[in-house]
Design a protein that fits this description.
about 130 residues, mainly beta, three-stranded antiparallel beta sheet, 1 helix, about 5% helix, elongated
C-alpha cells in the first residue's frame, strides 16, 4: 500500500532528506476508495522520537496520495535515523500497511571542518619594497 522514498540516504548534520510516501489501494482491492489514517514516526540515533499523523486520508484506485513529512526534526546527531510509516483503517482498529526505511547522518571530513581555504594568491610571499 505505501511506497516510501527517502533521498538522499546519506547526509551531513543539519541537512534534511526529502521524505515522501505514496499511498494507494492494492490492485485487487474491492471498492473504489477507502478512508485511512497515516502515522509517520522518525526515530533518531539517540532514541528520540518524532511523529506526524494524517487523519481521514481518502485513497482510491485511480489516484495515489503523496504525503511529505515536514522537516520539523533535528538532524544534528550523527548516526542512523529510522523512518516508519503505518497506514491504519479509519477506526484505527486494523493496521493495513507498514513500511520502514533508514538514512544516515555522517560527520563531515576533517578538510571540511578546518574552515575556509585560502585562495592561491594569498599563499604567495609578501612583495618586497625596493
Amino acid at each position: 500500500m505505501p511506497s516510501g522514498l527517502v533521498t538522499p540516504v546519506r547526509l551531513s548534520p543539519g541537512e534534511y532528506p526529502n521524505i515522501k510516501t505514496r499511498i494507494s489501494l492494492a490492485p485487487g482491492r474491492t471498492g473504489a476508495s477507502v478512508v485511512v489514517n497515516v502515522i509517520a514516526v522518525m526515530t533518531q540515533p539517540n532514541q528520540r522520537v518524532r511523529s506526524w499523523t494524517w487523519k481521514k486520508v481518502k485513497i482510491s484506485r485511480d489516484a495515489a496520495k503523496t504525503i511529505a513529512v515536514p522537516k520539523e526534526y533535528d538532524t544534528s546527531v550523527v548516526g542512523t535515523y529510522r523512518f516508519e510509516i503505518m497506514v491504519y483503517s479509519n477506526d484505527m482498529k486494523r493496521r493495513l500497511a507498514r513500511r520502514s526505511q533508514t538514512f544516515d547522518v555522517v560527520e563531515r571530513s576533517r578538510k571540511e571542518k578546518t574552515g575556509k581555504k585560502e585562495p592561491y594568491e594569498a599563499k604567495k610571499g609578501a612583495a618586497i619594497d625596493a
